Amino acid sequence: MKHKTLKGFQDILPPEISVWQHIEKISRDVFKTYGYQEIRLPVLESTDIFTRSIGETSDIVEKEMYTFTDKGDRSVTLRPEGTASFVRAYVEHHLFNNPAPQKFYYMGPMFRYERPQAYRYRQFYQIGAEAMGVEDPKLDAEIISMLSKILNSTGLEGVNFELTSIGCKNCRPAYRDALKNFLRDRLNSFCGDCQRRFDLNPLRILDCKVPGCIESRQGSPAVLDHLCADCKQHFDGLKRNLETLSVRHSINPNLVRGLDYYTKTAFEVTSESLGSQKAVAAGGRYDGLVDEFGGPPTPGIGFAIGMERIIPLIKGSMSKAEPPDLLICPLGQEAPEKGLLLAEQLRSSGIWAEVNYEQTSLKSQMRKANRLGAKNVIVLGEDELKKGEVVVKNMVNGTETKAVLEVQELKKIIKAGK
Ligand code: HAM
Hints:
Largest sheet: 8 strands, mixed
Bound molecules: histidyl-adenosine monophosphate
CATH superfamily of the largest domain: Bira Bifunctional Protein, Domain 2
Helix content: 25-40%
Distance between the termini: 42 Å
Radius of gyration: 28 Å
CATH topology of the largest domain: BirA Bifunctional Protein, domain 2
Number of strands: 16
Number of domains: 2
Number of helices: 15
Strand order of the largest sheet: 1-5-6-11-10-9-7-8
CATH architecture of the largest domain: 2-Layer Sandwich
Shape: elongated
């Protein structure tokens, strides 16, 4: 074949698209009850939006961004995630002037030049949420509970909420020192990237996926043991609030996020059914990010769900093709045009009607009705047009109902047969 999608990119076709729409609808419904409003952001941004926030030494910035120079000689990047773009918009439009908390959600494609494999794409879709302006861990608990509600409502089963705190700019220097002291003697056993990151950003060594590095960092100090009083109090509060809301979770002190902007709360929702790409959703707090983008110090927290990862986990997700309510089978000279008009009128009253525009025999028209799975069929021949009467054949239960050739009557019969 001459033309194909790029590696790591995919077409999403019917009937699978109905599962996507279903998840999007569930999410919108839940977002509404929590006061989240939709925000649509560009997929292309100035490169520095991502480098400074996600982190120069993160895998995303070092290896995975779709960055190019546009015709105006600017370095631009296809967004690898939504939070940096969101915070750029939050500051650009002075949204911090509105009363807190301000809550937003987005849905759309993200781009990362990763090695494609099962559940890992170069263009993938996220449903993300961001809540701004509140430091209290009750907001963390609320947003995690909302995520749990969305995932539960999609019918997702067997996922774990893993939670940790990664500290803040006050407790991080001491943790960084403790980590460096641990790593220093064994640095030779780490990969080149990790050795380079030792001075630049040693915390990134905890996120390295090279098996030898995973092995060598066994027993490294845990950030949870180095939290300052404020972070500890915040984390204890969050755990308590999650108990109050009955959100089942576990503490994973080894949880590391691949983005540098996080502070305090970090979480991942994982599934063992996805092999190595086990995170179906993830997020955390980013209390310093608005500040970094030039806005007034404003705390924030959010998450993003990976669509391509939750869809395979939803039972019966490969939905069947939707069948039309009615197939009109015209026979003879006049009938096709009458059929065209009748279908249009039925559609205006909410019936999904199709007309067979191919002038074929009755037998082959009925074969087509079966192939489409049409719920009802009417044959529109010369006789029917002359009498102004048709027979509605219900293809599900086999009943036949005589009807006047009139929209409201046909609608009633079709609706009653559903
Ligand atoms: P992230 O952990 O990089 O966080 O991505 C969130 C989710 O997107 C992952 O848990 C995964 O389900 C999905 N995902 C990531 N990369 C891929 C890929 N290559 N193929 C398929 N799915 C993928 C963020 O993006 C943060 N912006 C989340 C956030 C929002 N934090 C605060 N607010």
